[in-house]
């Protein structure tokens, strides 16, 4: 039979003892919890203090490397590397060849002129305008007589080249087949040009190509020295791109045989390079050239003619008429003094040439070397024709007195092709930024999105709690 124990039956000292022990245990637990919290807080504070310098260092490294990447992106964007080493010569155009008689003798002059004196002055002027080796032998007294020919304009010198194409050329070969010379060459001023797309009455099938290499494989011509009204003592040969009409390297010789092995180099650029400024890529794309309306040779020519006008205070009309360009130049030169034989000493003093025009013009005196940069850039898709010419005198008296032989050909059947590409594109910059941030700061796109969502959720919770306190429920229960 069970017995009911009343609260009055329990000794009061036992109740008080149990209450004291419970209170003591509670205090101990609270003290232990406080100690644990203090330890945790101290540990977290220590971690934050230690972590802060590393975070700042990582952030500084991130900013520094990002600046380096940005500098590489904005300042070093285009690089040119070898694309192919086996590009066949049949894939490029054969160079245009310009042949100009330079030094002449036995000129058919009028009886009122001193033949010997004018012939000497004429050939000395040609030496200066071609900048030949013989011009270094000239002295100051040699130029004293030029003042007597103030009315003789330089462009009028070519009236003495009154010979025809049939008289100038003896025979011509193209790709080892004999062809009519006047079908290969077109007259421009005092010169004859082959395989050009510029000028007057050009062949619509130009530019032609060659698929072979070695002597006699391309262009071989024989030029007569003895013409009806004069004798050709020397010629100048210019190799240039078919769509240009100037070159910085020319061949000038009095020898009987001229051998020109050509070593071309091909340059192209990918379309993405267009996004960079011209000053960084150093070339123009065809659409840009069409918009500018001026090829590189036009730009170089006009720059050199402005330099001539600055130095000698005269204007010169190029001996190679270029249809529209020539018309523009002639119209713009009206009212200005044209260069004459009396300006040849100025040409000599400033080493000015009318045939070897370069993008860099030397402007130096005896003690100071300076240059003028015309800033004329080529087509991004172009071919450079490098060559090392060989000349020799023939042994036979007949050949030496009758003909000048010119042989232009490719030295090898293959060539190097170079391509300009973006060194550091926008995609590379984005990858660089992401890799740097992930390496130094541990930041990723997913992590950034998660952090953004956490912040949004915290803001929403805070707004929701505020609304509930104000009696509003943003998320009512169904």
TrEMBL record:
Using the UniProt annotation, give all residue ranges assigned to the region (Disordered). Answer: 1-21
Give one Pfam family, short name only.
ASC
Record Gene3D superfamilies: YojJ-like
Q: Major place of localization?
A: membrane
> Membrane-spanning regions, if any?
52-70, 433-458
Q: Which InterPro entries did the record assign?
A: ENaC
Give GO terms: molecular function aspect only. ligand-gated sodium channel activity
Q: Which GO terms describe its cellular component?
A: plasma membrane
Protein origin, superkingdom: Eukaryota
Give the record's membrane topology.
Multi-pass membrane protein
Q: Which UniProt keywords apply?
A: Ion channel, Ion transport, Membrane, Sodium, Sodium channel, Sodium transport, Transmembrane, Transmembrane helix, Transport
Compartment list: Membrane
Q: Which family does it belong to?
A: Belongs to the amiloride-sensitive sodium channel (TC 1.A.6) family.
Protein name as it appears in the record: Pickpocket protein 19 isoform X1
Organism equals: Drosophila lebanonensis
């Amino acid at each position: 039979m069970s017995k009911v124990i009343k609260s009055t039956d329990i000794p009061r000292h036992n109740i008080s003892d149990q209450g004291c022990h419970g209170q003591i245990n509670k205090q101990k637990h609270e003290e232990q919890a406080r100690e644990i919290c203090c330890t945790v807080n101290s540990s977290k504070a220590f971690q934050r203090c230690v972590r802060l310098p590393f975070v700042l260092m990582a952030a500084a490294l991130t900013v520094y490397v990002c600046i380096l990447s940005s500098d590489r992106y904005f300042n070093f964007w285009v690089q040119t590397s070898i694309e192919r080493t086996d590009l066949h010569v049949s894939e490029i155009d054969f160079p245009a060849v310009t042949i100009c008689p330079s030094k002449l003798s036995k000129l058919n002059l009028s009886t009122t002129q001193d033949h010997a004196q004018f012939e000497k002055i004429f050939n000395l002027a040609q030496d200066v305008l071609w900048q030949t080796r013989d011009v270094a032998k000239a002295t100051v007294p040699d130029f004293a007589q030029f003042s007597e020919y103030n009315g003789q304009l330089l462009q009028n010198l070519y009236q003495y080249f009154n010979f025809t194409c049939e008289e100038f050329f003896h025979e011509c070969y193209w790709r080892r087949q004999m062809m009519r010379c006047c079908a290969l060459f077109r007259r421009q001023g005092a010169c004859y040009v082959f395989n050009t797309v510029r000028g007057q009455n050009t062949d619509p099938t130009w530019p032609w190509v060659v698929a072979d290499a070695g002597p006699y494989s391309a262009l071989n011509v024989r030029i007569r020295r003895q013409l009806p009204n004069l004798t050709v003592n020397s010629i100048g040969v210019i190799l240039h791109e078919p769509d240009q009409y100037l070159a910085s390297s020319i061949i000038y010789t009095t020898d009987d045989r001229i051998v020109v092995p050509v070593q071309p180099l091909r340059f192209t650029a990918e379309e993405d390079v267009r996004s960079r400024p011209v000053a960084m890529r150093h070339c123009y794309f065809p659409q840009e050239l069409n918009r500018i309306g001026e090829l590189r040779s036009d730009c170089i020519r006009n720059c050199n003619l402005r330099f001539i006008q600055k130095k000698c205070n005269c204007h010169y009309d190029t001996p190679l008429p270029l249809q529209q360009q020539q018309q523009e130049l002639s119209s713009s030169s009206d009212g200005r003094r044209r260069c004459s034989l009396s300006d040849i000493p100025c040409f000599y003093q400033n080493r000015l040439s009318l045939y070897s025009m370069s993008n860099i013009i030397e402007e130096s005196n005896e003690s100071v070397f300076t240059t003028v940069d015309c800033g004329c850039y080529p087509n991004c898709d172009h071919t450079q024709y490098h060559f090392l010419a060989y000349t020799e005198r023939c042994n036979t008296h007949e050949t030496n007195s009758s003909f000048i032989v010119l042989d232009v050909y490719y030295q090898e059947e293959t060539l190097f092709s170079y391509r300009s590409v973006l060194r550091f594109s926008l995609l590379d910059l984005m990858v660089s930024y992401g890799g740097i941030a992930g390496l130094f700061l541990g930041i990723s796109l997913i992590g950034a999105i998660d952090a953004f969502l956490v912040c949004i959720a915290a803001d929403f919770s805070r707004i929701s709690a505020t609304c509930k306190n104000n009696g509003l429920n943003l998320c009512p229960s169904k």
